[in-house]
Specification:
6-stranded mixed β-sheet, Collagenase (Catalytic Domain), 704 residues, alpha+beta
Length: 704
């Protein structure tokens, strides 16, 4: 007798009554245009002249959609497509449509509540040669109070099988009232569902106010913003930007954009941003570095400067003065000098060989305390140590600032928060473009940069007249990453699953089985690490270390390693940039360093505790269960053969990097060979609608 089940998901066992597919030889598929229905790889981007993004439509197509995205589409379980949906999979994945309600803000002209959807009769996996090639299909709205088809609840069409999909008929789907739950449009034959399209709920709609900030680089930083009519700035094309936002992009996620009537006009001191910029010798133009940290620091610095400007008056002046004195007093240089000493004398690499020997040395001395007491770090007699010099410079800096009446010297720069009731777009005069994240061998320029989810975008001169590129950056600010970025997804489609527990009628409880599997998965690295530790100890000392002693010495080593590595990493983060705030960060670092010194002695006095008892019990259970299972080799072999016949599931699916969407707003218009032909931004995936609505909602107001 045996059982096979998946730990933590016992429902995923052998299925005695698998789902019976419909015997219909046909399916019905939905397309946004006749051109898309022709199913050619060239039917996207500028080649699809019949679709411009005026309504949202997301249909899975593995020629343009990233691998692993299948989980974001509902599966119509009753039918399977004769064509492969993805690799070997034949699942029918339902497309999604977004339509606005009529007569609402964002759709006053009623141009966004209707869509012509083209429909095609296609073969299912049940199709046989003798089956009909022309069938009458009934299309039905699940809720005709909100959505109608050709003006009614149902509409019938006679469809022909045609592999080329030439001259397809269409249905006009119209939203006549808002709705808060998904509504399906079903395709039926003899009351059997053989196709389905889902309308995305539209009751919650948002307004996004775009606040332009026009930036010039100069010799000083403004102490207050100048508000000017947005229409007076020729570099901001309001008409093109709003058309792109409201008719070809954000409208698909039920987001309506407006541009603030007044633009904030400011000047930033160029020297404060030079660490993040490069001026090329060949054309004398300035560019933002592609380095991720420099981009992030650029974002941080601009926000800091802008919030100070918003605060205005003395706050802005004090911020500038604190930065100036921080540099002129020598505190910035003193911090840099201390960092050099830290890197020279306390730069542990804990992945080195001979860990046991190092652990024995660690237990004999307090290394961080020894570093702190070095004469070139702290010298109470001469005052010439790196930290002594910092204290002297700090004293001079604080005295100068106090004398000038500047207060709150132990707090970061006083600023007001950037308003979150709107999306900010900075138009940067004086910066030509940003270097792109390289794709393959191609390293190109892009017209903007945005930190994901922050609601703040930076547009450089190259992009001032590129509304689709500006919307690309705005969408980053609303939470979207690139389509070609690699990430992990979890997919419920059929696939391969191997982590099943085999129960061969052993005298153990189900809870023990679960515990065993959990320990093997979660504590495997710990067990292996301690065994490796014992082996190293024997090689070093010729002695078999008892498990209790091995656990204790390993725990001491790991604890000290973690503490020391934290100090090293914190030290590496000390940038010593020209900002008073970095001085405050350094003060926090010194406080943490001193706390770690105090803990060194405590770590060396560690004793066995309850965690070792827990560890011992886990180890004993695993050893016992491994022994029992090893006594049944043939049965386990037979069960593994049987397991191959069981229903299978695939989980951890990697979304591979790809840049072939041809039209998604979060793609680049070039790939690893150069410019893409026929690339034209005009669509988002349904998953992207959801992300922008969820993450971006903090910058929106709710439409009524």
């Amino acid at each position: 007798m045996f059982q096979i089940f998946e730990v933590g998901n016992e429902s995923n066992s052998f299925i005695n009554n698998p789902l019976q597919l419909s015997k219909s030889p046909h399916i019905v598929s939905f397309y946004r245009s006749q051109i898309q229905a022709e199913k050619k790889s060239s039917s996207y981007g500028s080649n699809d002249t019949s679709y411009n993004g005026e309504f949202g439509f997301d249909r899975f197509d593995d020629s343009v959609v990233a691998d692993g995205m299948m989980k974001h589409y509902e599966i119509l379980k009753e039918v399977e497509s004769d064509e492969k949906t993805y690799k070997k999979d034949h699942s029918y994945l339902c497309p999604y449509l977004s339509l606005w309600p009529p007569n609402v803000e964002g759709n006053k002209k009623n141009t966004k509540n209707k869509a012509k959807i083209y429909v095609a009769l296609e073969k299912s996996t049940e199709f046989k040669k003798e089956n009909a090639t022309q069938v009458t299909i009934d299309f039905e709205s699940e809720d005709d109070k909100s959505v109608v088809i050709n003006g009614k609840k149902t509409a019938s069409l006679s469809l022909k099988l045609d592999d080329k999909h030439t001259n397809l008929p269409y249905i006009e789907v119209e939203c006549i009232a808002e709705f808060d739950k998904e509504i399906a449009v079903l395709a039926k034959v003899s009351n059997v569902v053989i196709g389905k399209m889902i309308l995305y709920p539209n009751k919650e709609r948002y307004k996004a106010l775009i606040q332009p900030v026009y930036v010039s680089l100069g010799t000083t930083t403004s102490t207050s913003k100048l508000e000017v009519p947005t229409s007076s700035i020729s570099d901001i094309d309001e008409v093109a930007l709003l058309d792109c936002a409201n008719n070809h992009s954000l409208n698909q996620a039920y987001i309506y954009a407006e541009i603030a009537s007044k633009t904030h006009k400011i000047e930033l001191k160029k020297s404060e941003l030079t660490d993040f910029l490069e001026t090329r010798a060949d054309n004398s133009k300035t560019y933002l570095y592609k380095d991720g940290k420099k981009r992030s620091d650029f974002n941080k610095k601009v926000k800091e400067l802008y919030t100070a400007i918003l605060a205005g008056g003395n706050i802005a002046k004090e911020r500038v003065r604190k930065d100036e004195v921080y540099q002129s007093s020598g505190v910035q240089q003193a911090i840099l000098n201390f960092r050099v000493e830290l890197k020279s004398h306390f730069n542990h690499n804990f992945t080195d060989a001979n860990r046991v020997k190092k652990a024995q040395k660690l237990s004999e001395k307090t290394e961080l305390n020894n570093f702190w007491m070095r004469s070139d770090v702290n010298d109470s007699v001469t005052g010439s140590g790196a930290y002594d010099m910092f204290l002297a410079k700090e004293k001079s800096m604080l005295a100068t600032l106090k004398k000038e009446g500047i207060s709150d010297l132990d707090k970061p720069h006083q600023t007001i928060a950037i308003p979150t009731d709107r999306v900010h777009v900075f138009y940067f005069g004086g910066i030509e473009a940003s270097y792109a994240e390289p794709i393959g061998a191609v390293n190109k320029l892009v017209p903007g940069y945005t930190g994901v989810g922050g609601g703040i975008s930076y547009i450089f001169e190259m992009g001032f007249k590129m509304p689709d590129a500006i919307l690309h950056e705005i969408a980053h600010g609303l939470g979207l990453g690139h389509t070609f970025e690699e990430k992990i997804e979890y997919n419920d489609k059929k696939g391969v699953r191997t982590d099943f527990f085999v129960n061969i009628d052993l005298d153990i409880t189900e809870q023990q089985q679960k515990s065993y599997e959990g320990f093997k998965e979660n504590d495997k690295k710990m067990f292996e690490a301690i065994e490796d530790w014992r082996k190293e100890y024997k090689q070093e000392n010729g002695i078999d270390l008892p498990i209790e002693d091995a656990y204790l010495s390993y725990a001491k080593y790991k604890t000290l390693s973690f503490s020391y590595q934290s100090i090293v990493k914190e030290g590496e983060k000390i940038d010593a940039t020209p900002s008073y705030d970095d001085y405050l960060l350094f003060k926090d670092f010194i406080a943490n360093l001193q706390l770690t010194i105090l803990s060194e002695a405590d770590i060396s006095n560690l004793t066995l505790d309850s965690s070792f008892l827990s560890y011992s019990k886990k180890l004993a259970l695993i050893q016992d269960m491994d022994k029992r299972l090893s006594e049944h080799p043939q049965e386990i072999k037979d069960l593994k053969k049987e397991l191959k016949k069981a229903p299978e599931r695939e989980v951890n699916v990697i979304v591979h990097p790809q840049s072939d969407t041809m039209e998604n707003y979060m793609d680049y218009d070039f790939d690893d060979t150069g410019n893409k032909q026929n690339f034209e931004r005009k669509s988002f995936y349904k998953e992207q609608w959801e992300i922008m609505r969820k993450i971006g909602s903090k910058f929106f107001t709710l439409l009524k």
